[in-house]
Amino acid sequence: MCGIFFSLSRDDREFLDFKTKRLLEHRGPDSIRGHSTLFGQGDGRFYATLWSSVLSLRGNKIEEQPVVHIPSGDVLCWNGEAWSSQGMDIIDNDSSYMLYNLMMPAMPLEAERTRQAVASATIRTLSSVRGPFAFVFYDAENRFLYYGRDCLGRRSLLQKVTTDDQLILSSVCDNSSGEKWKEIDADGIYMVDLDYPDLKHSIAAATTHIPRRRGGELDDPFPSLNLSVDSRLEDLHSHPSQVLDALRKSVKVRTERVRRAVKYVEDPHRTKEEARIAILFSGGLDCTILAKLVHECLPPEQSIDLLNVAFENPRIHNNLDTGVSPYELCPDRITGRSSFAELLTVCPGRLWRFVAINVPYKDTKKHREMVKRLMHPHNTEMDLSISYALYFASKASGMVHDSSGERAYTSTARVLLSGLGADELFGGYQRHATAYSRRGYDGLLDELWLDFSRLGKRNLGRDDRVISDSGREVRFPYLDENFISLVLQLPVRSKCDFGQPETTTSDDPFQFLEPGKRLLRVAAWFLGMKKVAAEKKRAIQFGARTAKMETGKTKGTQVLLD
């Protein structure tokens, strides 16, 4: 994972302010450096400045960025994980690999290497990448600049055009300049023609948006949502194993070959190899399934940390009896401990650490401005309450119980797994049940497609900015391209059959487990986690008690005023 900063301007001013640079360093503590290049002459002269910080997670050495090919002048800032490109798996560090592929796009004949033909081949190369990414690529020979995000927007990239028409891109912003930042949409790639005749007057006019379209030059990798309703019973019972197999592959690629931290610190309490993987763990269905699959994928000597966050909420916890912990009363703490106990039963031989992260109200207030800065340009009460939970959970500092008793502990894991995406794909929100009650399966299908299509705009960029400030990378196994493609093609009744309410008169889990995310519930049942399979859905801001800390009258959609 990396932090990216890029500016395109008519002079050589330093647009990277100190505060933004510090935020970039938080994202990539292993390396940070800059690179500048000049092109054009006279009034058409432009300066490009690129900075990248690096969190080194793959390969056996730190690959510093920006990655520069000195003979050609090509430069790449790459923030993400390319698991494959052009049909080939990428096992080690991917940044140099991606620069090579972008420099040498597949061309039919040397004689056909026109600027536009090279640009089309470059777009096809980017189209083939599977995995989360945001990037800036400068093609010096052909004088094109490319930037954008992956098809879901799993990595952050913000943009602003200043009042004097300078283009600035960044993974994160300080937001103190007074000029408006916006999140780049995850619906395509942007290409700036640096030979555009009137570039000196308008960068926007020289910029082309290449949209993602199914079967297009920049391919949308996802099939249409399966709109069928009727499902044979035997088909329904085959779907849990299909889903688990696909999810297991997604977990495996996201957890294998994660390198130990560059600045590794030995722990005197260590009994097995320290955790390289941690899970954002509420104890709910989605994250506990991930924990079980991580157990299956990792060697037994690696420990796994479960990060469970709970907040002191003065509106709820003001009148507690002496000695009663507000944190242990939080719903996610109760569920987390219950699911942790079930994991210990079904996953013997593994060293698990349940990291109880307790956040006093004074700490919430102390970090309010930092959290707002990180989640910007998102700015609602709901954004803030969700961001609080992710921000403190990703710091990974809390209390654990082990053979030496209770002690303070900070996880060494630099890869965090999140269950985000499961609710959108499998119908886990109350609004899905409401859509069915109003318009039947047509309404449910519309709601599922709406949730999936707006994932990048609503959640992912914000979550990446907030979590990455800890110097850790979040990965989303439920948002693997192959996994999503499988789930989109499954009939809706196998995923969440609100037309078949749960019943107590059957021993078939497809009938006695609740309809929301029923397919995942059955999968958990088959994995031996029967309590988890029956666990009710609860939004993170309510489970961790970050919602409505000062007043119960606040709406989640309310815009922050301070």
TrEMBL record:
Species name: Periconia macrospinosa
Gene Ontology biological process terms, A to Z: asparagine biosynthetic process
Ribosomal protein listed as a keyword: no
Note the InterPro entries from the entry: Asn_synthase, Asn_synthetase_domain, GATase_2_dom, Ntn_hydrolases_N, Rossmann-like_a/b/a_fold
**What GO terms are given for molecular function?**
asparagine synthase (glutamine-hydrolyzing) activity
Alphabetized UniProt keyword annotations: Amino-acid biosynthesis, Asparagine biosynthesis, Glutamine amidotransferase
Q: What is this protein called?
A: Asparagine synthetase domain-containing protein 1
Report domain Glutamine amidotransferase type-2 positions: 2-195
Q: Which Pfam families match?
A: Asn_synthase
Kindly indicate whether the keyword Nucleotide-binding belongs to this entry. Answer: no
Superkingdom as given in the UniProt entry: Eukaryota
